[in-house]
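User: Predict the full complex structure for these chains.
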Amino acid sequence: MLSFIESLAHRLGGQVERVAARNEHEVYLQLRDADSRPAISILRSEYQGRVASVFAEDRRSADACFFVYHVIEFPGDPAYLLLSTRIDHTDPHFPSHSVDIPALNWQEREIQDMFGIQSDDHPNPRRVALHDNWPDVHPLRKEFSLTTVLPEFEGERHIYRPALGEGVFQIPVGPVHAGIIEPGHFSFAVAGEPILYLQLRMFYTHKGTEKLFEGMPVERAVFLAESISGDSSFSHGTAFCQAVERAGAIELPLLAARMRTILLELERVYNHVADIGAIATDVGFGIANAHASRLREMIFGLNEVLTGNRLLRGMVRVGGVRRAWNESQLSALRLTVHGFESEFRHLVDLIVSSDSTRDRLERTGVLRLEKARDLGIVGVAGRASGIDLDVRRDHPYAAYGDFEIHPPVYDGGDVWHRMQVRIDEVPASLNIISALLDSDLHGEPCTPFDRIAPDSCALSSVEGWRGEIMHWIRVGADNRLERCKIKDPSLNNWPALVEAVQGNIIPDFPVINKSFNLSYSGTDR
Amino acid sequence: MFKILNETFRTGIVTTGYPAAAADIAAGFRGLPRIDFPAWRDARPAAEVCPTDAISAVDLGGVRDVTVDYGLCVFCGLCAEATPEGAIQITPEFELAVEHRQELILSAHYGLNEDGSHRDLISVRPGAAAVEPAAERAGRKLKEQISATLGRSLAIREVDAGSCNGCELEIHALNNPIYDIERFGVHFVASPRHADMLLVTGPVTRNMEVALKKTYLATPEPRLVVAVGACGISGGIFGRNYASLGGADQVVPVDVYIPGCPPRPQALLQGILMAIGRMKQALHLST
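Assistant: Here is the predicted structure of the two-chain assembly.
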């Protein structure tokens, strides 16, 4: 519960329609007026609020309106504030905040695309999620059927900002890339080797995920959550289950909280070690990557022992985890974590002692603090640029409340520091796992649950290995979902890439991109 | 330099012996769910929990028509947990690649008791594909030519047509020193112009349809297409919806299908080598 909610409600005075705390993690404040700008301005300037996400909901059948929600977090307070405004369904529009809060640019445009709610005064109101060949449809409106077969359509071509001037060229890349990576389109404007600017086009992997959640029973939806972003299966699965548990007031057994924490940290470790190797590859240090991928394989093998799946799938469930671990699984965990520690030290030593690697990574792809703050950058990329955010510490979940989390924060903002954050986080993760291995790992793995009261909603956040993952759900009748909003940290962080590459040379783009390693699928859904 | 050499000698050779030797797989790995059809007392609980409807049951006139489609399976193991009589066993089988979509489907008919449980098994047959491939296989007629031309050196272009990136992680692993696909003369290339095979993942999204088609057309003949993972085969948990067209074969002809969510590296290896005639199909459901 927000400690200052009363003073806040008083400060906003007549703007407040009502205040309600659904659970200890979130407070809902509904505004009387559809214009949220004055309230958000006060929350940001006087309460240091950070707008983490904005999303919409079609409530025309229940409340005869749409709702737009702004999720706001405050330093030092574990509860989130969800500021909601009613949007008239006859002429749906909402005020854009993108000029003041550039971080909301894509999210506001996505609301336009998916709900047909116009974002007033948006500096760049073009489509973002739906491409040129989409007719005028709004898939997240309730009357739009999931299985609609859209006709062929030729819309207006997306115009990229032209590159003009003597010796200036445009380099289009993608959506099918040269490496084994996800699809997206990058349009570089270059003058010789230096990059003048980069334009991104995403949402190539948009596959209707949020719409698919609607109507799905919550147990089944866990598997869909695991497929939002493949390398964050366990984090997204956990974020989703946590949301359902909060909505249904389902208490998590201690064993499940501890097991989830261990698996979340294993996911962080395998991704961080793979990224460290990939960064080395992109500056020509292939042998370091060979060792890094050998290390990742150690964790994949352990994942399989612990969960039956190399990507940790099929283990998390609503109310806990599927099964407890037996002694042989626990000893495999102990053994691998122990062996991994020294292997990781060898890998780091190999990379940081290479002067030529260091030379390529330092001062490459710099993202400055002010830019990072404006763009709302989170997670590894944020911490490397001085943004001290970590959901594990700021909004504890699973067993993280038992730990003191000290996230590494640097002000360098370059590729080197984004790698350094990962280098620091791996041993910290292993320490958390080791501490949990010394705790009691016996007991019930899961709390059974029955019917969740219809109309229950809840927000859940998890510090995935990239950063802040958020799920907001509303459960309808028969434990079926009414709405599931997913925010992957990649959605925040893609614009950081655009800033970080400016002035760098084109051959450094792969390593800058890799130092962020953002999820396309998590962004596009 | 000394450090690099030292590390190399310290770790030694880490490459797996698979496929010459058996694959090193953890005890709890969830591979193919095998169904003992005569012993199956009731298909409904498994159909109820299956997240992708890989097991589906329809009752018509006292007869239950059960379809098991491994092309949709995400290998979660819930079906076995939901079937108390033990008729479904999760096996460690992972060599699941097939040439025809229908080879992943079984269809069983049961007579029913009054309580809806199975009275007797009427038949089990290979099933028909739920959704016919829109594009016919490309390589079938060219099979021998392809093996002769590409068999000893294969260039692969990977195309993510909408995947969650899970399959990509395992495809990446093929290039690591453990699975080291280059020991078979197989390598990944940066352009479809240099490729003999497209390895396609993900449900094909509406936004990737044109890109996948163009990539296919840019690949010189003879060319092969391998569909990877539940999504690449059938659309998987995403299925067919306003933004997803379903499996890769809805857009391009597919020569080999590799089930999994995601398929483990050895399973990918088997499917790729099978496509060029260097490994045999291991899965024969109907026999």
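The longest strand of chain B covers residues 118-126.
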